[in-house]
Amino acid sequence: MILISCPWCGARNITEFRSGGEAGVRRPTQEVSRQEWGDYLYFRDNPKGMRTERWFHRHGCRQWMNVARHTVTDEIFAVWPPHQAMPEFKVDDLSPAPEVENRPELRMVTEKDLP
Amino acid sequence: MTHYSILSLARNALIGHRGWSQVWRSPEPQSQYDAIIIGGGGHGLATAYYLAKEHRLGKIAVLEKAWLGGGNTGRNTTIIRSNYLRPESAALYDHALKLWERLSQDLNFNVMFSQRGVVTLAHSPHEVRVLRRRHFANRADGIDSKWLETDALQDILPHLNCSSKARYPILGAALQKRGGTARHDAVAWGYARAADSYGVDIIQNCEVTGFLIKNNQVEGVETTRGLIRSSCIGLAAAGHSSVLAAQAGFRLPLQSHPLQALVSEPLKPILHLVVMSGAVHGYLSQSDKGELVIGAGIDPNPSYTQRGTVNIIADAVRAVIELFPCFSRVRMLRQWAGTVDIAPDASPIISKTPVAGLYINCGWGTGGFKATPGSGHVFAHLLATGEAPTLAQSFSLERFVTGQLIDEHGAAAVAH
Predict the structure, then answer these.
(1) For B123-157, how does the pLDDT look when each residue is reduced to its tens digit (9 = 90+)?
(2) CB within 8 Å of B191: residues ≥ 6 apart
(3) Residue range B29-40: average pLDDT?
(4) CA pair distance B196, B173, nearest whole angstrom
(5) Between chains, do B250 and A113 touch, taking CB under 8 Å as contact?
(6) What's the CA gap between B335 and B267, in Å, rounded?
(7) With a threshold of 0.90, does the pTM exceed it?
């Protein structure tokens, strides 16, 4: 069983929650190109390592929250309400795979890149 | 390579089976290849095989970070079918199915392909409507599909709970007779052996750690066994495609999820068809060893654990007992998960990438095994010619800019 510590309800089984995908994705507010719109709609980070994401306590308080989770161990390092900044957290020494991978900076696929 | 036949079997039976040769070599990586395939699963090995056989490419290497077929090729529920809703998908998966039909002969290796039939159940009037739509779409696309009313279904599957008092009563089903199963390990081994016989270097325990890219043209890969140069590289890495793409500096519209399966203790023959249900969300078949092979859904959150959470398999087992109450006391032997790469439209991506000379074949999600021969066949064409064949043109990365998606969510028998 994986527990998520809801900021309002405390530690609850993951089955009470709905995964809401990557955190911090913003809908473009201005006129954007097709690439930028496609990037917003379809492209999400898929890291093998630490990931910040949104979760919804569907069968609980029905509040959204941010979660920092390691995708290789499913270990959850921090949970915080959506209006707050990410808290500082320590990666536990006892954790099986604590190291976050150094990924090169991602760049968007542009129209001229595509076949 | 020893040609497998009744004569070679008889000869070896007489000489105490001392005459069998090694099935494939384990060569040291060379410094340069005409083409490199990253990923030694079914798709990567099939790509190498068709590149060598049909496109006559000289020096080809398959790089596998662990062992052959140890990823999703060895972790799926071995179901093969082509009854997809959209014409683009139906054509691609049926191309694969046609290759399956002669694969054992083609590879001279028994992949135990069994066209036992795949039944997809409908449990509500709405599901009947959706499933009949797919049934007719399949017929229009030239794919065999037969509609079964509940009585006819009960005749074929006497143990299936077709009672009208069931919690989710079965109101009808679509049957694809040409669908079935194959032995997943044998597919990897058969392709590896056949590719090796054409001179393909299959290099295991060789993980790609980076790409050598100059002026936006790929020139090679950094690996745990050194730099290997090639200006034509194909990624066939399933759940780890995003990780490799990030190393090459571009993003993919994929999310990697755990997908679980489990098998029971062996039983006497009881289930001769593959049975799938979207409403209760379970699918199962019986292997030649007698085990019930049960597939679960994906975990809703992305993860590379290759483990999955317990509640998901509990749901799958509940679904199976709803369909077959007689299996309620069957004990389960093993459970595992693979990491599946799912695109926003649940369709594969077979495409050029922003880096010249680097091609991807990914996004097969929960349904890659059935496509293995077709996937390798079209990807080999893309690698050899630089252009996707007609069958694969709709599956380019460009569709996530144009919006021309091939929506197969839910249409693929069970909703993942």
Answers:
(1) 999 999 999 999 999 999 999 999 999 999 999 99
(2) B42, B45, B46, B48, B49, B107, B372, B376
(3) 97
(4) 43
(5) yes
(6) 17
(7) yes
B252 contacts chain A (CB < 8 A) = yes
**Residues A61-103 pLDDT 10s:** 999 999 999 999 999 999 999 888 888 887 764 444 434 444 3
Distance CA B318, CA B270 (A): 19
Q: Does the beta carbon of B344 lie under 8 angstroms from any beta carbon of chain A?
A: yes
Quote the minimal CA–CA distance from A89 to chain B in Å. 21
Are B184 and B143 within 8 A, CB to CB?
A: no
Q: Please report, for residues B248, B249, B254, the alpha-carbon distance to residue A104 in angstroms, rounded to integers and kept in the order given.
A: 8, 7, 17
Kind and range of the H or E run holding B277:
strand B274-277
The predicted pLDDT at position B11 comes to 95
Query: Residues of B176-213 as b/e, b for ≥16 C-beta within 10 angstroms?
Result: bebbbbbbbbbbbbbbbbbbbbbebbbbbebebeebbb
Distance CA B138, CA B249 (A): 39
In a mutational test of the A interface, the residue from B218, B244, B251 whose CB has the highest number of chain A CBs within 10 Å is B251
**In A1-115, at which residue ranges do the beta strands (DSSP E only) sit?**
3-6, 10-13, 18-22, 50-56, 64-70, 76-80
Q: Is B100 helix (H, G, I), strand (E, B) or coil?
A: helix
Q: What are phi and psi of B399, to 5 degrees?
A: -65, -20
Beta bridge partners of A10: A6
Radius of gyration of chain B (CA): 21
Q: Is residue B172 classed as helix, strand or coil in its secondary structure?
A: strand
Supply the ipTM of this predicted assembly.
Answer: 0.89
**Interface touch B253/A42, C-beta < 8 Å:** yes
